[in-house]
Specification:
InterPro entries: AMP-binding_CS, AMP-dep_synth/lig_dom, ANL_N_sf. This protein is α/β, with parallel strands linked by helices and 419 residues long. Among the domains are: 113 residues, Rossmann fold (3-Layer(aba) Sandwich); 160 residues, Rossmann fold, CATH 3.40.50. It is built from 13 helices and 19 strands. The strands form four sheets. An eight-stranded mixed β-sheet has the order 5-4-3-1-2-6-7-17. A five-stranded mixed β-sheet has the order 10-11-12-13-14. Strands 15-16-18-19 form a four-stranded antiparallel β-sheet, with no helix packed on it. A hairpin with a 5-residue loop joins strand 18 and strand 19. The longest helix is centred in the middle third of the chain and has 22 residues. The radius of gyration is 23 Å and the shape is globular.
Length: 419
């Protein structure tokens, strides 16, 4: 506010996941602006597009490298009033460029009453966050999510996957996926706020190989990995396995066979636990889970892209069921979710309570366009009325552009894209 943030103007955040990222995001919302995550991999031109599109008054950057991108385009951003750098010391003084501590000190001059008035003037159906979709065609679109979209979805999805409230037992999560993406915001910011979860930040190079070290240190209770992350863990485990003695390899191979059979039966509703499964759990599964830091993790999830059946079966055979979820930025993240007592391999699960799916114009096999409805459906694209009309029909259904079908038990399968 002290930097001159105007109501419904953006605060762009450019950096790796950190406490400052969260504070800037939530602060922007409470101060009446839009929280706007910008991918750290964006070029200066791409940063300019987002900052210009959301009329950003303030940009928060992590380090000198990200700052350089902004300084390159600063002259083309008439709305920009200030830049804040949080991750490292400033290398040079410039007008309207602040370090994190200077930025924090500035806020002390804003009376609480002023902030409270702004907070109380906000309405649940007003926009609080913009998620820029990496447009495969044309420019990225700013997905407008309201306060209600975010808070309702965090609560509904969290309850659906049975997250525990901090009063009983605190959930622990590792934040490493890019926060400019809705999946990471939901899993790292909004559900932990809703349920009182504890968040640990991974190293910026997490996806280059340090993630497993962080997982081992934190031992999270819930973990969301994109398919590539699960594939990398699978590759790492296979290469370690290949180096072990032949006896160990035989035991592991036996345990994996037992694990897959037992878990597939479980998936189809059989609850008995055979003796050989218990033995395998003792000899193999527990050790494997410990080695990758998932020994306390009861909720392993994957989403954001298709995952292969092979990878799902690999983890299932080690008694690590990886549950698929499906949704899009325009649905505040999740729409269907798989849960331990209701999942099918290669299905994205069932609708979160309060969400509905319509298969639009199904063919003979029941395959049609997947459409969503519910309180998680976005407000529209910022300043793109035509695009919004393409996505939302007059009955309020969100058209995903994905093809899919339901099976007889109501599980959703995504089969492709509408060409």
């Amino acid at each position: 506010l002290q930097l001159g943030l105007k109501r419904f103007h953006g605060v762009g955040i450019l950096g790796f996941n950190s406490a400052e990222w969260f504070i800037a995001d939530i602060g922007a919302i409470l101060a009446g602006g839009f929280a706007v995550g910008i991918y750290t991999t964006n070029s200066p031109e791409a940063c300019h597009y987002v900052a210009e599109n959301c009329s950003a008054n303030v940009l928060v950057v992590e380090n000198h490298k990200q700052l350089q991108k902004i300084l390159e385009i600063q002259h083309k951003l008439p709305h920009l009033k200030a830049i804040v750098q949080y991750g490292e010391e400033l290398r040079e003084k410039r007008p309207n460029l602040y370090s994190w501590s200077e930025f924090m000190d500035l806020g002390k001059d804003v009376p609480d009453t002023q902030l409270r008035e702004i907070i109380e003037s906000q309405k649940p159906n007003q926009c609080c966050t913009l998620i820029y979709t990496s447009g495969t065609t044309g420019q990225p679109k700013g997905v407008m999510l309201s306060h209600d979209n975010v808070t309702w979805t965090a609560l509904a999805a969290g309850r659906f996957i049975m997250l525990t409230d901090a009063k009983e037992k605190q959930e622990l999560v590792v934040s490493y996926l890019p926060l400019s993406h809705i999946a990471a915001q939901m899993s790292d910011i909004w559900t932990p706020i809703t349920f009182g979860g504890q968040v640990f930040f991974a190293q910026p190079d997490a996806l280059k190989g340090t993630l497993v070290d962080t997982l081992r240190e934190v031992r999270p209770t819930a973990f969301l990995g994109v398919p590539r992350v699960w594939e990398k863990i699978e590759e790492k485990m296979k290469s370690v396995g290949a180096k072990s003695s032949s006896l160990r390899r035989k035991v592991a191979s036996w345990a994996k066979g037992v694990g897959l059979q037992t878990n597939l039966k479980r998936m189809n509703g059989c609850s008995e636990v055979p003796v050989n499964f218990r033995l395998a759990r003792h000899l193999v599964y527990r050790k494997v889970r410990k080695a990758i830091g998932l020994d306390r993790c009861t909720k392993c999830y994957t989403g954001a892209a298709p995952i292969t059946r092979e990878t799902l079966e690999f983890f299932l055979s080690l008694n690590i069921p990886v549950f698929e979820l499906y949704g899009m930025s325009e649905s505040s993240g999740p729409h269907t979710v798989s849960i331990p007592h209701a999942f099918r391999l290669t299905s994205c699960g069932k609708e979160i309570t309060g969400c509905r799916t319509l298969i639009h114009k199904p063919d003979r096999d029941g395959v049609g366009e997947i459409c969503f409805s519910g309180r998680h459906v976005f407000m529209g694209y910022l300043n793109m009325e035509e695009k919004t009309k393409e996505a939302l029909d007059e009955d309020g259904w969100l058209h995903s552009g994905d093809l899919g079908r339901h099976d007889k038990d109501g599980f959703l399968y995504v089969t492709g894209r509408i060409k």
